[in-house]
From TrEMBL:
This is 39S ribosomal protein L13, mitochondrial. GO terms for cellular component: ribonucleoprotein complex; ribosome. The keyword Ribosomal protein applies. Keywords: Ribonucleoprotein, Ribosomal protein. The keyword Metal-binding does not apply. It comes from the Eukaryota. Belongs to the universal ribosomal protein uL13 family.
């Protein structure tokens, strides 16, 4: 085998490092995409018995967004293997204790019940903010696109931009709100 073909093969089977920004993203929809990268299903050489998955670094997991009233309604089960050790924790309580846990549980569930689930899960790195250790930053090679755009807050908009924003109705200055 020539050196060129060998380097192509090495490049094909090499593990890449991807970064995903979880700011204002639904963890259960995002986990489907992250699981695809962890299992290597985004690669053309993908096969169920082929372990060609990549590493995924998830940042800003403390700023995830759940839909509707899922913060109060979604619960997580945990059992500590002792008698009477079963507990149900609401999403907001779990997120308050550990901001990375909801994202980790969502990805673990999205990986499915296959034999490579634990190896793929070991390649997931979740951080609660955008501070990534230097040894991981050096390995990053691409970014996974977010599912929905992050809205801009009103305090981030400049006063000039607010003044130039088109108005639908121009109220008179003598108008009084009741």
């Amino acid at each position: 085998m020539s050196i060129v073909r060998r380097s192509q093969q090495w490049g094909t089977f090499a593990r890449m490092w991807h970064v995903f920004d979880a700011t204002w993203q639904d963890p259960y929809q995002s986990s489907q995409i992250i699981a695809k990268y962890l299992l290597g299903r985004h690669k053309p050489i993908s096969h169920p018995m082929n372990r060609c998955g990549d590493h995924v670094v998830v940042i800003n997991s403390s700023e995830i967004a759940l839909r509707g009233d899922e913060w109060q309604m979604r619960v997580y089960f945990h059992h500590d293997t002792y008698h009477g050790g079963a507990s149900w924790t609401k999403a907001w309580e779990l997120h308050k204790k550990d901001p990375t846990m909801i994202m980790k549980k969502a990805v673990y569930r999205a990986l499915g019940n296959n034999l490579t689930r634990h190896q793929a899960y070991a390649r997931l790195h979740v951080f609660l903010d955008d501070k990534i250790p230097l040894e991981i930053q050096q390995n990053l090679s691409s970014q996974i696109k977010q599912l929905r755009p992050v809205p801009q807050r009103l305090d981030q908009i400049s006063p000039e931009e607010l003044e130039n924003f088109p108005q639908i109705v121009k109220l008179p200055e003598t108008y009084v709100l009741t």
